[in-house]
Write a structure and sequence with these properties.
The structure is a single chain. With about 220 residues, the protein is α/β, with parallel strands linked by helices. The protein contains nine helices and six strands. The strands form two sheets. A four-stranded parallel beta sheet has the order 3-2-5-6. Helix 7 links the parallel strand 5 and strand 6. It is globular, with a radius of gyration of 17 Å. It starts with 6 loop residues before the first helix and ends in an 8-residue tail after the last helix. The model has no long low-confidence stretch (mean pLDDT about 95).
């Protein structure tokens, strides 16, 4: 795995790339991609950082694992490539958008247009073996992405963190709540949404109301 990360992030994260755990993680990922089908494509592993510059970052959404089906993962959490059928969690995200901000259900599941506006779509684990959910967990990715969250918290102010589900909510311990705006709700997966823990959270409008209140452009969700 060759780390090619957007210039705006290099100085922020360079110390992580130099740590022993990241060398071990790199060796593991290289071996996995050599011996198995893994997602996303190598060039998309750090897509979240490529699309969302550090100095323009306004919102952070935290996912857990990349999608592990053929052609789905594109390096942005909850997002899929153009033309790919929308996974259940993404369907529920779009349904909540429909009712919250009255936006028509999108044709494309590619969320890069969010990222380009300053939304960091960060999975806690950035790679996965095909058809094996969680297969690259506990190999070092979480250490890296926790460091990303901590750096954002320390070096920026008034960022909106959208923490969806129990896993994401645990990341709140890395965030300075005096400096940043945190919204929590259930996970958009059918298991959580169908129990009443997702729909009606109004996170899209709440995030934009906050951004407007601090004189930042709202996100065109």
């Amino acid at each position: 795995m060759q780390v090619k990360i957007a210039d705006s992030w290099k100085n922020i994260l360079q110390q992580e790339f130099n740590k022993p755990y990241f060398k071990s993680l790199t060796d593991f990922v290289k071996l996995e991609y050599k011996n198995y089908t893994c997602y996303p494509n190598g060039k998309d592993i750090f897509a979240a950082f490529d699309f969302c510059a550090f100095n323009e970052l306004k919102v952070v959404i935290i996912g857990q694992d990349p999608y592990h089906g053929v052609g789905q993962a594109n390096g942005l959490c909850f997002s899929v490539h153009d033309g790919i059928q929308h996974p259940p969690s993404l369907i529920n995200i779009f349904k909540e958008m429909e009712t919250d901000i009255q936006k028509a259900y999108p044709v494309s599941g590619d969320l890069s247009y969010w990222a380009k506006q300053g939304v960091l779509l960060l999975n806690a684990t950035l790679t996965v073996r095909a058809n094996k959910a969680g297969s690259h967990q506990n190999k070092g990715w979480e250490t890296f992405t926790d460091a990303v969250i901590k750096q954002i918290s320390d070096k920026k102010e008034r960022v909106v963190f959208l923490l969806w589900g129990g896993f994401a909510k645990k990341k709140s311990k890395l965030i300075d709540t005096d400096k940043h705006y945190i919204l929590t709700t259930g996970h958009p997966s059918p298991l959580s949404a169908n129990r009443g823990y997702w729909f009606g959270n109004k996170h899209f409008s709440k995030a934009n109301t906050y951004l407007s209140s601090i004189n930042k452009l709202p996100i065109q969700w």
